[in-house]
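Researcher: Final request for today, and then I'll write up notes for the group meeting. The sequence and the SMILES for nicotinamide-adenine-dinucleotide follow.
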Amino acid sequence: MSIRFDERVVIVTGGGNGLGRHHCLQFAELGAKVVVNDLGGALDGTGQSLSAAETVAEEIRAAGGDAIANGANVTKPEEVQAMVDEVMAKWGRIDVLVNNAGILRDKTFLKMDVDNFKAVVDVHLIGAVNCTKAVWGIMRQQNYGRIVMTTSSSGLFGNFGQSNYGAAKMSLIGLMNVLCLECKKYNIHINALAPTAMTRMNEELEPKGSTFTELLKPELVSPAVLFLSGEDAPNRTILGAGCGAYAVTHIYETKGHYINNSKVSPDDIAANWELISATEGEAEQDNAAAQSIKFAELAAMNLGISLE
Ligand SMILES: NC(=O)c1ccc[n+]([C@@H]2O[C@H](COP(=O)([O-])OP(=O)(O)OC[C@H]3O[C@@H](n4cnc5c(N)ncnc54)[C@H](O)[C@@H]3O)[C@@H](O)[C@H]2O)c1
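Model: Predicted protein-nicotinamide-adenine-dinucleotide complex:
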């Protein structure tokens, strides 16, 4: 069965440019009613204009699709709520939310002032929180929802000069992990996209026109978002996408090694480091308690006691 979005209502934040624009166009191509949200500011988040969102919505309508433009600033809960109210009044449901809006304020940590750190966290994390919160009750009531968080290799793996951005992007994985547990019974799936593509966000970092940048086509990232938003989408998956290649990132914990349950010195940790960090048998943990239980089981086994 092929993935389609007929009768589905999709909100894409930051849909007026770059990756978000391609997400919107491809959702519309597959039948979705699309809300193109975009503040229309500069790369650093300053300024505002509805024209970016309008242009994409118009492009969709010109091709025979259904779309509305919205200029809500995702950092402002009241503007986000007004957007959601408008969508509900027009289309009566919200099936997919793609938290894509983003800004950059790069500086090495030494030169980064806290205001620039907070501004980036505000758009990426709080923006996603505001939008997710505004659709959460609706999706629970519908017993259906698909949410995509846009994370980044900068958070997953680190990137020089992006402490604010990397921290903000990794925080979305924490948000996803917890929300996935809270919405298990409501058929809401939450996944994360880790894209790489040539947009205004990285055009200063890479020389335009090189073979490398030519390969980084944003339109090849959007199919990953649509896959993560479909009825049969996975849940709690981090999907990387770039250049037409796709990969999944996992967060694994090693099997672990018990030392003793009375007194442990830092030297004991050092002496056992090979066993503690051995990758054989490493696994994802379903939730925070699973880690505590794993350690307690290791201790109980070594102490010859049973866990009640
Ligand atoms: N391009 C990449 O290689 C790359 C890599 C990793 C992650 N990302 C992430 O992908 C997403 C899209 O990035 P892009 O490369 O298309 O950049 P982009 O600058 O082209 O698009 C981001 C859009 O978000 C909008 N936006 C910013 N602040 C907003 C706010 N407060 N409210 C509503 N809209 C707002 C902007 O106006 C812009 O249109 C971002 O979250 C970015 O961090 C991009």
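Model: The radius of gyration is 22 Å. The chain has two domains: 9-249, 252-308.
Researcher: Thanks, that's everything.
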